[in-house]
Design brief:
Blueprint: H1 2-15, H2 35-38, E1 48-51, E2 56-62, E3 67-71, H3 85-88
Organism: Kangsaoukella pontilimi
Protein name: Lipoprotein
Length: about 90
């Protein structure tokens, strides 16, 4: 019983060290045309992805404590999203 408790505790502690976001292979190798000009400065444009949940662009921020996805924002502070088929029509 004591070994099981220690194993569960160790698993929980190690799970807390996992990073969020950062799914290798999901990032653009080349940004869509005009994206770099629209994006505000100080965002990592080398690690940009498009999430299907909201159809918006996110970038990977490597902070001092964790790596996470943050919304890619325009110079006006708006979230950069891709137009859907209904919006384009």
């Amino acid at each position: 019983m004591k070994k099981l408790t220690c194993a569960l505790l160790a698993t929980g502690l190690l799970a807390g060290c996992a990073t969020t976001g950062g799914r290798d292979g999901d990032f653009f190798r080349e940004l869509p045309e005009g994206m770099a000009e629209l994006a505000a400065p100080n965002q990592d444009l080398t690690r940009v992805t498009l999430l299907e949940e909201d159809n918006c662009f996110w970038y990977e921020h490597d902070g001092p404590v964790e790596t996470t996805l943050l919304p890619l924002r325009s110079k006006r502070g708006r979230h950069l999203c891709q137009a859907t088929a209904e919006e384009s029509a």
